[in-house]
């Protein structure tokens, strides 16, 4: 008896990969999130004949990603992974907040099957769109025996959800594993493993089940030359629950900003120190505000929200 290849489910959420422009020459003046995920698949002849299923979970420009969409996506991914016939899930997404969604899914689901996020820098109508190849690669990664965890397949490279960052605003290879090794490369349809598939402990969907209005408010404040504490005071007045300080270098903060953050901490606000550098950890040192480790400010924000949601 012939065994069926595992089913790969593609979940669409919008982004530039589903974007359209008036002209094929227009790579930036387009509208994201226009085409349905079924249309994206239909445009890739090399995927014809593969065992695929497509569902539209959302249709957003990922700059507008929100908590309700995260909840719907996490639940949809979980439901698909729970089907025994599903070998893996691909999520099409915008590039702008892709690393945030990847990190959230990693922390909430830490799946034993692969969940592969992919996207595009050019709209589907571009003369040479990058979405179709990224989609083919993502399906290939999701179908790779032994693959697991939340990863990002983009421009021929496979990144870990914890490491990946959008590192360029325009280049077609916009993502980097800024502080760690690549998991794999996809070359002519072959997945060449370079590292390890991500592992972790799932917090579970219940952790993110609270209605969006009840989620803790966590904001990011940047250190820079001349930074003072006024933003922090404004956030305190607005009822902030947590603040991630994107410090300079090894999480350093201008004196007035640090003083304001300590005041916020004394008032019950959870404060984490991260870095505005593209890579590297912030050392935990006695007497300093707590460190976010090697998490980027946006991922430290998600980590802090998840921690506060546990209370
Ligand atoms: N603004 C778009 C989005 O994040 C950008 C992209 O997908 O490249 O949805």
Give an overview of the whole structure.
With 311 residues, the protein is of the alpha/beta class. It folds into 2 domains: 187 residues, L-asparaginase, N-terminal domain (Rossmann fold), CATH 3.40.50; 94 residues, Rossmann fold. 25% of the residues lie in helices and 23% in strands. It has 7 helices and 13 strands. The strands form 3 sheets. It has an 8-stranded mixed beta sheet with strand order 2-1-3-4-5-6-9-10. It has a 3-stranded parallel beta sheet with strand order 11-12-13, sandwiched between helices. Helix 3 runs parallel beside helix 7 and helix 5 runs parallel beside helix 6. It is globular. The structure holds aspartic acid (ASP). The site of aspartic acid has 11 residues, from loops.
What number of domains?
A: 2
Distance between the termini: 52 Å
Radius of gyration: 20 Å
Order of neighbouring strands in the sheet with most strands: 2-1-3-4-5-6-9-10
């Amino acid at each position: 008896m012939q065994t069926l290849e595992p089913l790969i489910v593609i979940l669409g959420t919008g982004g530039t990969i589903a974007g359209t422009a008036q002209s094929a020459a227009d790579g930036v003046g387009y509208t994201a999130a226009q085409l349905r995920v079924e249309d994206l698949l239909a445009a890739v002849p090399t995927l014809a004949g593969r065992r695929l299923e497509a569902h539209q979970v959302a249709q957003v420009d990922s700059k507008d990603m929100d908590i309700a969409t995260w909840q719907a996506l996490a639940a949809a991914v979980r439901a698909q992974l729970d089907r025994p016939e599903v070998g893996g899930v691909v999520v099409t997404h915008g590039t702008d907040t892709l690393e945030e969604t990847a990190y959230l899914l990693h922390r909430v689901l830490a799946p034993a099957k692969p969940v592969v996020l992919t996207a595009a820098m050019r709209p589907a109508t571009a003369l040479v769109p990058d979405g179709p190849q990224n989609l083919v690669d993502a399906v290939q990664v999701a179908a790779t025996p032994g693959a697991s965890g939340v990863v990002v397949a983009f421009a021929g490279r496979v990144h870990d959800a914890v490491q990946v960052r959008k590192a360029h605003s325009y280049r077609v290879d916009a993502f980097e594993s800024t502080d760690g090794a690549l998991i794999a490369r996809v070359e002519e349809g072959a997945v060449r493993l370079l590292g390890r598939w991500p592992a972790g402990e799932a917090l579970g969907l219940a952790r993110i089940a609270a209605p969006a209005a009840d989620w803790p408010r966590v904001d990011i404040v940047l250190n820079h030359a001349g930074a003072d504490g006024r933003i922090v005071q404004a956030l305190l007045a607005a009822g902030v629950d947590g603040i991630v300080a994107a410090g300079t270098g090894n999480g350093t903060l201008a004196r007035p900003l640090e003083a304001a953050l300590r005041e916020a901490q004394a008032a019950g606000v959870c404060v984490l120190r991260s870095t505005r550098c593209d890579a590297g950890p912030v050392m935990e040192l006695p007497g300093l505000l707590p460190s976010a480790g090697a998490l980027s400010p946006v991922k430290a924000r998600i980590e802090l929200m998840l921690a506060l949601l546990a209370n």
